[in-house]
Amino acid sequence: MGLLVVGVGDCRQALDGSDTLVTYALGSCIAVGIWDPVSKVTGLLHFMLPESRSEIGASASEHPYRYADTGTPLLFRKAYELGAEKRRLQVYLAGGASVVDDGGFFQVGKRNHTAIRKLLWKAGVLVHGEDVGGTYPRTVRLDASSGTFVISTPGKVDIDLKATPSIHGAKD
Amino acid sequence: MQKDIMIVDDSPAMRSFIKRTVVIGGLEMRRCLEAGNGEEALTLLRNDTVDVILTDFNMPVMDGEQLVQNLRVDERLRRVPVIVISTDSTRKRMLSLQSLGVHGYLCKPFTPERLARMLCAAVPGWRAREIEESFL
Amino acid sequence: MSEVNSLHEGASAVCLAAVPEVLETMFFESIAESPDVGSPPPSGALDTSRVDFEGSARGYLVLASPSSLSISLAEAFLALEDQCPSASDIEFVLGELANMLCGSALGRFQPDGSFRLSTPMTHLARTLAEPSQTGFDWIRFSLDNGPLFVGLELEAFE
Predict the structure, then answer these.
(1) What is the DSSP code (8-state) at residue C31?
(2) Which residue does chain A place closest to C24, by CA atoms?
(3) Domain extents for chain A?
(4) Strands A149-152 and A159-160
(5) Helices (DSSP H) in chain A: which residue ranges?
(6) Which residue, B63, C90, C129, C157, shows the most beta carbons closer than 10 Å to its own?
(7) Distance (Å) from the C-alpha of residue C108 to the closest C-alpha of chain B?
(8) Coil, helix or strand at residue B20
(9) Which of C95, C111, C112 has the CB atom closest to B11's CB atom?
(10) How far apart are CA C121 and CA C125, in angstroms?
C-alpha cells in the first residue's frame, strides 16, 4: 500500500490496487482523477495551463502534463493500456481556484476548468464529481482500491466526491 | 435497462447536445424520438409512448407549456415524466410549470452532468450501464 | 443620470454577467481578457444572430462573431472532432447561443418579469450596417478563439 505523490505538471497511475495517489497545493491548477471500478486502474493528472500553445520556450513534448490538451489524452491512454474501459471510468476534477499571482494568464483557474470540460465533452466523458473555483488551495487523494476522491482544504471539512458524486465549489 | 426518450426542441443543435449527453452518460437508450415543436411531438405520440420527454419551452406552432397541458389530459401519456428545458429563469415561469406538474425544470445554460442527473432522477430504474453507482 | 444611461448600464451589466456563464457552461469557451464595453464590431463580414423579445421589457439581443470563432463554437457545442460543422450547424449553434444569452440576461435584469423570445434570426458572413451607430453599447468579449461582440437593446418597459 503506497502513497504516490503527483507533482505539479505531472501524472501517475497507481501501480497496485492498494495505492493512493496524492497531489498537493492545487491553486489554479486542476487535478483530474480517473478510476475504473472493475479493473481498479487509477490515474491522477495535475495540470497547470489549458493549452500547450501558451508555452513560450520549452516545447509541450517535454512537459506534456503541464497542459490540459496534451496531458489529458495521455492520462486516459495509459489507463486504457492498463485495462481500464472508457464506459466504466469515473472522472473527478478539483482545483481551478482564483489566485492572486496568475502568471499573467487571465482567470487561469476558470480557463483550466473550461478547457478540461471541453476535452472531456468532446471525448465523450462526463464528470462524476468536481470541486472547483473559490480562492482556496486544495489537496487531493485518490484511493485505487475504493475510488474515493477526497479533497482537503485548510479550515474546511474534507469532501469525498465518490460518496457524494455531485458538483461542489464556487460555481454550479 | 433501456429506455425510450423524446426530445422536443426547434433547434437541431440543442437536440444533438441533449442526445449526446444521454449517450455518453451511459444511460441506455433504445429509441430517441425527436420533434421540432409540441404539435409534432403529439403526432409522434398518437400511437406510441416513451419513458421520458425533454422539451424546450419556446417553440413555434405549439410551445412547451401547451405540450405539457395536452399530455396532462391524455390518460395514456399523463404519467410520462416531463423535463422542461428553457432559457427563462424568471420566477413566474418556474411557478407556472410547477403547477403543471412537470417532473423537472432545467434552466439554460446547464452542464451535461446536471441533465444526466436529472434524467436519472426522473426515470426510475434508469441507471448508467456497468457502473457501480449512478450519477446521483 | 438619465433613464437612457441607466438602461444602457443595466444592459451592459447583465451581459457582462450572462455571457461568460453561457459560454463556459455549454459552449466550453473561456474569456481571455477583460471585456471591453463600448467596442463595436469591425466592418466586414461577420456571422450574426438576433433574438427579439417582448413582455416585461421590449428589445433585442444581437451577437456578431468572426467565422473562425463561429466554427469553433459549433465544434465545441456539437462535440465535433474530425469533421467541420456545416453552415446549417453553425447557424443553429449561433442561434442557440443568442437565445441563451438573451434569456440569461433578461432573467438577471428582471427575475420577476415575464418575457417572450422570438426565434433567433441568424445570418452568416453578413456586413453589419453601421455597427457603431446603434442605441446600445456593444461589448467585445475576447475569447481564446476570437472576439465575440454582444449588444442588448432595451427599448421600453411595460
Answers:
(1) B
(2) A114
(3) 3-169
(4) antiparallel
(5) 68-81, 108-123
(6) C90
(7) 8
(8) helix
(9) C95
(10) 13
Q: CA of B16: which chain C residue's CA is closest?
A: C78
Please answer whether residues C125 and C46 qualify as being in contact, where contact means their C-beta atoms are separated by less than 8 angstroms: yes
Using one digit for the tens of pLDDT, what is the confidence trace for A73-94?
999 999 999 999 999 999 999 9
Report C:41-100 residues touching A (Cβ under 8 A).
76, 79-81
Contacts of B93 (CB under 8 A, 6+ apart): B57, B86, C114
User: How close, in Å, is residue C23 to chain A by CA atoms?
Assistant: 9
Tell if the CB–CB gap between B17 and C99 is shorter than 8 Å. no
Contact B53, B5 (CB under 8 A): yes
- Give the whole-angstrom CA distance, residue C38 versus residue A142: 47
Instruction: Supply the CATH classification number for the domain A3-169.
Output: 3.30.1330.200
Going by C-alpha positions, the residue among C59, C23, C28, C53 that lies closest to residue C148 is C23
Instruction: Please say whether the beta carbons of C38 and C15 come within 8 A.
Output: no
| pTM tops 0.90, yes or no | yes
CATH number given to C3-145: 3.40.1550.10
Crossing angle between the packed helical segments B12-24 and C87-109, to the nearest 10 degrees: 90
Partner-chain contact B111 A87, CB within 8 Å:
no
Q: Can you give the residue ranges of every domain in chain C?
A: 3-145
Decide if B131 and A167 are in contact by the 8 Å CB cutoff. no
Q: Does C26 touch chain A (CB under 8 A)?
A: no
Write out chain C's pLDDT in tens, 158 residues: 466 667 777 889 999 999 999 999 999 999 999 999 999 999 889 999 999 999 989 999 999 999 999 999 999 999 998 889 999 999 999 999 999 999 999 999 888 888 899 999 999 998 887 777 778 899 999 998 999 999 999 886 66
Residue count of chain C, please give it. Answer: 158
- Compute the residue count for chain A: 172
